[in-house]
Amino acid sequence: MKTNKNLKQTPSDKVLVIGCLSAVLGLVGCQQEGSAEKAGQKIDQAAENAGQKIEKATEKAEIKIDAAKESLDKKADAAKESINESTEASKGALENAGKKLDQATENAEKKIEGAKDSVVDKAQTAGEFIDDSMITTTVKTAILGDSLLRSSHIEVTTVNGVVKLSGTVDSDSNLLRAKEVAIIQKNVKSVQTDLIVTITPSTK
Fold first, then answer.
1. Strands (E), the chain
2. Residue 184 sits in which domain range?
3. Which of 57, 119, 122, 129 is most buried (CB neighbours < 10 A)?
4. What integer is the mean pLDDT of 100-106?
5. Residue 99 forms part of a structural domain
6. 133 and 139 in contact (C-beta within 8 Å)?
7. Whether pLDDT at 123 is above 60
8. Coil/strand/helix, residue 171
């Protein structure tokens, strides 16, 4: 004989089942909520770590940029100083070259002036010698050509246009005549005489 037992659920059983289901769902929700919170924390930490790395990288880059800038500034200053030194050296060299050129020019001018003076002096001396010689020749020719002085023994010398007569004449009048003949010649400045009057005794 079979016996069927019908289970009848009472209101208290229903409440128990609903409570169990609520507890299970609450546990599942808590687990999901905990996982989401952990994931959020990991994301925040990763973001923070990335930010720190970016800050460090930026800081290092800024340090390198500052160092490079400082190095460039130093090199620029060194190049500027070198250029200034080169400019000063070039300026000094040009000044020295200018001084040497001026000195050389001055020395050359002095030498030219000295040579010019020497040439002029020599030319003047040569000209005076020629003039004196010509004067002496002219005076001698005039004395020899004079009928009153032809028999006299007169020597003629000339220095700077000054004629000097020496020797003998036979009278005072011929002495004066010799001076007159000499003084009227060209380029004669003056006449000095050392002539001696000697009277030749007449022969019968």
1. 153-159, 162-169, 190-197
2. 124-197
3. 129
4. 84
5. no
6. no
7. no
8. coil
The reply to whether 92 falls in a domain is no
Q: What is the pLDDT of residues 36-91, one digit of tens each?
A: 677 777 777 877 777 788 788 788 888 888 888 888 888 888 888 888 777 777 77
Chain centre to alpha carbon of residue 21? 106
How many CB atoms neighbour CB 181 within 10 A?
Answer: 20
- In tens, the pLDDT along 8-44 reads 556 666 666 676 676 666 655 555 556 667 777 777 7
How many angstroms separate the CA atoms of 156 and 136, rounded?
Answer: 6
Q: Model's pTM, two decimal places?
A: 0.39
- The residues, ordered by sequence, that sit 6+ positions from 159 with a Cβ below 8 Å of its Cβ are 132
CATH number of the domain within which 175 lies: 3.30.1340.30
Quote the radius of gyration of the chain (alpha carbons, Å): 70
Number of domains the chain is built from: 1
| % of the chain exceeding 90 in pLDDT | 28
How far is residue 145's CA from residue 116's CA, in Å, rounded to a whole number? 42
User: What is the layout of strands, in order, in the sheet containing 162-169?
Assistant: 153-159, 162-169, 190-197
Q: Say if 55 falls within a structural domain.
A: no
- Cα(63)–Cα(110) distance, integer angstroms: 70
Supply 135's token pair: 């004067």
